[in-house]
Design a protein that fits this description.
252 residues; alpha/beta; 9 helices; 47% helix; binds 3-methylbut-3-enyl trihydrogen diphosphate; binds magnesium ion
């Protein structure tokens, strides 16, 4: 497949949904109300991604490190996760959205693990939009679990060490089913990765916005896509090299 240097719409958008707590604090509300408003923003992003023809939308909802937050905030987030799954799965199914949850599921309550499994099963036949929620997820966790899984399926570790390729390792990562993200958005003003998709974001275009996640609406999503459309993706090559295939297409 030819890589076009200026694809109009990213195939895969990943979002670090940050700023819920600050959104609530600015309104003298408890942090949890920022998290529940954040779920409305998730709904808006899923709908807009579908409308714009994005094929993969990957959302960072809860990091490996977020387990270290105060116990009451962690339990509220887990309750919100449960209720969002209960309320939204029917709609996702109708909208042609396939839901996957990627992360260390063993850390979740068994009831939540069951709900996740049921939601994934219920939407497994869909392919219009692949929605992945990264929860109890960290890029380092993902790399370690990938290496463990690779070793577990390779009888000869010494031979593996000799011939291991990037593709072989990538096949064991949590997002092995998706192309790498073209566009990574982080809301909330911080310019850091916070242990999100460490391997997969090697060549993603990075878009940082001060908009807090609960305020990130359809127009904000479109603004990120418009910025993406201006980027020239070079993947290590020169500008002239990546322009060449486009010129060939014009001549054809
Ligand atoms: C993102 O918002 C949601 C989670 C990390 C679960 P935050 O809760 O980090 O909000 P801020 O960054 O404190 O404003
Ligand atoms: C990143 O946000 C994780 C999620 C959005 C789920 P954090 O709020 O946890 O990141 P830091 O701590 O500011 O880096
Ligand atoms: Mg934060």
């Amino acid at each position: 497949m030819t890589r076009h240097p200026r694809p109009a719409v990213p195939r895969h958008v990943a979002i670090i949904m940050d700023g819920n707590g600050r959104w609530a604090t600015a309104r003298h509300l408890p942090r949890v109300s920022g998290h529940s408003r954040g779920i409305d923003a998730v709904r808006a992003a899923v709908e807009q991604a579908g409308r714009r023809g994005v094929e993969y939308l990957t959302l960072f909802a809860f990091s490996s490190e977020n387990w270290r937050r105060p116990q009451d905030e962690v339990s509220t987030l887990m309750r919100l996760f449960v209720s969002a799954l209960q309320k939204e799965v029917g709609k996702l199914k109708e909208q042609g959205v396939r839901l996957r949850v990627v992360g260390d599921r063993a850390a979740f309550d068994p009831a939540l693990q069951r709900l996740i499994h049921e939601a994934e099963q219920a939407t497994a036949g869909n392919a219009r939009l692949h929605l992945t929620v990264c929860a109890s997820y960290g890029g380092r966790w993902d790399l370690v679990q990938a290496v463990r899984s690779l070793l577990a399926t390779s009888p000869d570790a010494a031979a593996l060490a000799e011939r291991l390729t990037e593709q072989q390792l990538a096949a064991h990562l949590g997002l092995a089913f998706a192309p790498d993200p073209d566009l990574l958005i982080r809301t909330g003003g911080e310019q850091r990765i916070s242990n999100f998709l460490l391997w997969q974001c090697a060549y993603s275009e990075l878009y940082f916005t001060h908009t807090l996640w609960p305020d990130f609406d359809a127009a904000a999503f479109d603004a990120a896509l418009a910025w993406y459309a201006t980027r020239e993706r070079r993947f290590g090559q020169t500008s002239a090299q990546v322009a060449a295939p486009a010129a060939e297409e014009l001549r054809a």
